[in-house]
Write a structure and sequence with these properties.
Blueprint: E1 25-37, E2 41-48, E3 51-58, H1 63-69, E4 77-86, E5 101-112, H2 132-137, H3 139-142, H4 146-168, E6 172-173, E7 191-193, E8 201-203, H5 209-217, E9 222-230, E10 242-251, H6 255-271, E11 283-285, H7 286-293, E12 307-308, H8 319-326, E13 330-336, H9 345-357, E14 364-368, E15 372-374, H10 377-380, H11 382-391, E16 399-405, H12 407-424, E17 435-439, E18 444-447, E19 452-455, H13 468-476, E20 490-495, E21 498-505, H14 510-519, H15 524-538, E22 545-551, H16 552-560, H17 590-596
Parallel strand pairs: 3-5, 6-9, 11-17
Antiparallel strand pairs: 1-2, 1-4, 2-3, 4-5, 7-8, 9-10, 10-22, 12-13, 13-16, 14-15, 14-16, 17-20, 18-19, 20-21, 21-22
Helix pairs in contact: 4-6, 4-16, 9-12, 13-14, 14-15
The protein binds one RNA strand of 77 nucleotides through strand 1, strand 2, strand 3, helix 2 and strand 21.
Length: 603
RNA sequence: GGAGUCGUAGUUCAGUUGGUUAGAACGCCGGCCUGUCACGUCGGAGGUCGCGGGUUCGAAUCCCGUCGGCUCCGCCA
């Protein structure tokens, strides 16, 4: 039998009671986390979002309550009324905040019973967390874990701080539509069929990009939004099909103003976890980041920069190196300091496998132990190997890992290897935050397969002013090769090897916009068809403007110190974009399909 | 689209070279216990070895397929 809740008032949370409350009569409500039954004496750990308080039921002093308490099982929801008493010195529990006191129960109400949970969400050292699919199916139970609750509260505090800050900076929070129109640029769209318009579809926004620019054209001057975004692409540990961005845009803004604003904002947010970010953030151009770190989102918590070994191997007849250099590629390496020379054959094989995943043909290595050993010894000879090691800046005890090939492949594989080696060799200091700006991204990416140029950021990104003449020559003069060198006023905010934000100064001039579309091989008609409303808008007095979008989840992941985006979302999806709790996506009624004029094609 | 890895009791896992009745811990149920806090202790229940097929006298174990979780490449600001 359950008890009626009635008018009973909770007086304190389960994390509130301290020595100062001793003697008070209190009523706590919560879940039974654990029960320790000694017959005439029974202890309960009562849990709510604030913490845990021990309740004591004594047969001698409160026989009715004690008898009732016998019926209680794990995760029952109960209300306990009693007196706060101080624990004897030997009975205090330093592991919980309320451990100096306990509640001597007079009365208990069983507000609800509970089935035995399908898994234990209190993790002890002897057994691990239940499998993720089970926890996702019962997400509302998994969320009872204090760690997940703490993450969600941290996320709330971060978002609240962001709103405060943006308000102080006189930004206006503006909501933009969720049901919009598909644009073929960028990611795959999630699509929603229209009932009123046969055969037509809305798309969910990949980001509020065009709307925020329209806000600038409207003269709203400073816009921001904590915006949900949708992208129908494959998932990763830090990627979900729907996610949240701090999206912002400023009129008359330069990149410097965007950097300053965001640095101020991030400094405020990181203060929430007691971290003082070093201001201003260091900057690297895209070209420099790729050259020195092999990545456009380098992890600056450790060194291990890429070393150019081309001159050290110049003139070699070792085919992989010679071929790479002859065809305009590179030979580069990273130097593993300290323990590098102790890397086992197995470890080197694993690292080679890792590098191959990113397109490297092979991984060459040099180990400077008591004597130099190297996979290149036969091919290059001892002198050349030493020369290479020296060029890499390697000293006794170090190892050099070398990749040769196309610049892109060398960067990708060595960049990935740099992270992997740092992780394995424990070169990454804990509780360290290394933010930076990566600037001057290329305007375009050349696709080898179809021979076309694609925007690296999006087609509304402004070129660098000094590259404009180049741009005109490339597009109007037909020197399309020049497009590869064009730089944009585009920038990413990077922290600890994670891209947490990206933005740009936008094109505000119709003539420049026309050049971009032309460079992308888009006819004026095609552009009109896709973005006509926007091109019209550009002609009514568009201020120079720019902004940035920030991944809230990635930011909170850094704040919470977790590697997985599911740890900072209340109801995440699996790697196959399914929700195991509500069993989404699901089929819909034939009737609903009819209404939408949709038929499902047979496989 | 591709690769790796995992799937055995409610949960986390072990399970030898293919061989008798598939084990442990935690949880659950019952008994005992007045100071525990991962209580202790005694007893008990609990299994479609993800699913389907094959090889074999015999399959949790070997093979093929398939489904699902996770991670990565491709993809994605």
């Amino acid at each position: 039998m359950l008890d009626n809740f009635g008018e009973l008032k909770r007086t304190h949370s389960c994390g509130a009671l301290r020595g100062e409350h001793v003697g008070q009569s209190v009523t706590l409500m919560g879940w039974v986390a654990r029960r320790r039954d000694f017959g005439p004496l029974t202890f309960f750990d009562l849990r709510d979002r604030d913490g845990i308080t021990q309740g004591v039921f004594n047969e001698e002093t409160a026989p009715a309550a004690h008898a009732r308490a016998k019926e209680v099982r794990g995760e029952y929801v109960i209300a306990v009324t009693g007196e706060v008493v101080e624990r004897d010195a030997a009975q205090r529990n330093p592991k919980i905040a309320t451990g100096d006191v306990e509640v001597q129960a007079r009365e208990i109400l069983i507000l609800n019973d509970a089935r035995t949970p399908p898994f234990q969400f209190e993790v002890t050292s002897s057994d691990g967390l239940a499998s993720e699919d089970l926890r996702l199916k019962y997400r509302y139970l998994d969320l009872r874990r204090p760690q997940l609750q703490a993450n969600l509260r941290l996320r709330h505090r971060a978002v609240a701080e962001i709103r405060r800050f943006m308000d102080e900076q006189t930004f206006t929070e503006i909501e933009t539509p969720i049901l919009i129109k598909s644009t073929p640029e960028g990611a795959r769209d999630y699509v929603v069929p229209s009932r009123l318009h046969h055969g037509k579809f809305y798309a969910l926004p990949q980001s509020p990009q065009l709307f925020k620019q329209l806000c600038m054209i409207a003269g709203l001057d400073k816009y921001y939004q904590i915006a949900r975004c949708f992208r129908d692409e494959d998932l990763r540990a830090d990627r979900q099909p729907e996610f949240t961005q701090l999206d912002l845009e400023m009129s008359f803004a330069t990149p410097e103003q965007v950097y300053a604003l965001l640095e101020g904002l991030l400094a405020r947010v990181f203060k929430l976890i007691g971290v003082e970010l070093p201001l201003p953030f260091p900057r690297l151009t895209y070209a420099e980041a790729m050259r020195r770190y092999g990545s456009d989102k380098p992890d600056l918590r450790f060194e291990m920069e890429l070393q150019d070994l081309a001159s050290a191997v110049e003139g070699t007849d070792f085919a992989p190196f010679a071929a790479a250099l002859a065809s305009g590629g590179e030979v580069k390496g990273i130097t593993v300091r300290g323990g590098g020379a102790a890397l086992s054959r197995k470890a080197l094989d694993e690292l080679q496998e890792h590098a191959k995943r990113y397109g490297a043909g092979a991984l060459a290595w040099i180990k400077l132990g008591d004597e130099a050993t190297s996979s290149l010894l036969k091919a290059l000879g001892e002198d050349a190997v030493k020369r290479v090691a020296q060029a890499a800046g390697a000293e006794n005890g170090d190892a050099v890992l070398i990749v040769a090939g196309k610049s892109k492949t060398v960067a990708a594989s060595l960049g990935a290897l740099r992270n992997e080696v740092a992780r394995r060799e424990k070169l990454i200091p804990a509780n360290t935050y290394a933010p930076l700006w990566v600037t001057e991204f290329p305007m375009f990416e050349f696709n080898d397969e179809d021979g076309r140029y694609y925007p690296m950021h999006h087609p509304f990104t402004s070129p660098l002013d000094e590259d404009l003449p180049l741009f005109e020559r490339a597009v109007e003069g037909g020197e399309t090769e020049l497009l590869k060198g064009m730089r944009a006023k585009a920038y990413d905010a990077v922290m600890n090897g994670s891209e947490i934000g990206g933005g740009s100064i936008r094109i505000h001039r119709r003539d420049v916009q026309r050049l971009v579309f032309k460079a992308l091989g888009m006819t004026e008609e095609k552009a009109r068809e896709r973005f006509g409303f926007f091109l019209d808008a550009l002609e009514y007095g568009t201020p120079p403007h720019g902004g940035i979008a920030f991944g809230i989840e990635r930011l909170v992941m850094l704040l919470a110190g977790t590697e997985n985006i599911r740890d900072v979302m209340a109801f995440p999806k699996t790697a196959s974009a399914a929700d195991l709790m509500i069993d989404a996506p699901g089929a819909i009624d034939p009737q609903q399909l009819d209404e939408l004029h949709i038929g499902i094609a047979k496989q």
